[in-house]
Design a protein that fits this description.
Elements lengths: L3 H12 L4 H8 L3 H9 L20 H14 E5 L5 E8 L3 H14 L5 E6 L2 E8 L2 H4 L17 H9 L1 H12 E10 L2 E11 L3 H13 L5 E5 L2 E7 L2 H10 L5
Antiparallel strand pairs: 1-2, 2-4, 3-4, 5-6, 6-8, 7-8
Helix pairs in contact: 1-2, 4-5, 4-7, 4-8, 7-8, 8-9
Length: 249
């Protein structure tokens, strides 16, 4: 008898294109058993949608961060052999961000492989698995800003427990820390500020609600007629963001 994790690991290897013989050698499971599992898939009950909060990963801090970057630059697409690919687009300019994203994916799903796929100007942090749609029920057809985005109760509980990790993920995906300047009395003054820019009203509200909970003051700045930018400019709030977020690297 084999546990569910062993069965799912063997099936994930098959979905990655491995031969039945190589999967058998790596896992120590007979080819006959693997062939039977391939015909009759038994997913882990912990991650079924009906399991509710039980679907939450054990590394909740890493999940909060990954949720933030997913809402900004992530997508989930079906695999031809079943299962799904999670992809997070990360700019080449921020190698530290790429590594943090990769580490978060691995922490959330330790048994799933993580790939770095180079694209023009960015790296797609990619992982194949059979439970990404359970991990991120916000997935769906079309662009995120054209459909409703709301957290499940168990996701909100994780964000409430790890708000800074969630904010860091949002800033790492669709935010930045910049230095503004102005001239007063012929002297140049510089001051830092944070921005978070996203077309989705729902995702911006998730950001601002979480900022409010951690004591960060923010304002909304419009781009033309669209209120797309969340701005953090007050000195005390910027200092708080610097202590927990900091610039991308």
């Amino acid at each position: 008898m084999y546990d569910v994790a062993t069965r799912m690991h063997a099936l994930d290897l098959l979905a990655d294109g491995r031969s039945m013989n190589s999967v058998s050698k790596e896992t120590g499971v007979s080819r006959a058993a693997i062939r039977a599992w391939k015909v009759r898939l038994e997913p882990s009950p912990r991650l079924l949608p009906s399991a509710g909060p039980c679907a939450a990963p054990s590394d909740r801090a890493s999940y909060a961060y990954l949720l933030g970057v997913y809402l900004g630059d992530g997508c989930i697409s079906p695999h031809p052999r079943g299962g799904h690919h999670l992809r997070i687009a990360c700019a080449d300019a921020w190698p530290g961000l790429i590594e943090q994203c990769r580490a978060a994916v691995k922490a959330v799903r330790p048994d799933d492989k993580v790939y770095l796929l180079q694209r023009q100007g960015c790296v797609a942090v990619t992982s194949y698995g059979r439970h990404w749609t359970c991990m991120f029920p916000q997935h769906g057809p079309g662009k995120k800003h054209e459909r409703r985005i709301a957290l499940e109760t168990w996701q909100q509980e994780i964000v409430d427990a790890h708000p800074w990790e969630f904010v860091r993920g949002l800033i790492h995906s669709d935010g930045c820390r910049i230095t503004n300047w102005t001239v007063r009395n012929a002297k140049r003054y510089e001051y830092p500020r944070y921005f978070f820019t996203n077309k989705s009203d729902d995702i911006r509200k998730l950001c601002t609600d979480t900022l409010t909970k951690v004591g960060v003051q923010w304002t909304i700045l419009a781009r033309g007629s669209d209120p797309l930018n969340v701005s953090v400019a007050r000195k005390s709030s910027v200092a708080l963001m610097d202590a927990h977020i900091g610039p991308k690297y």
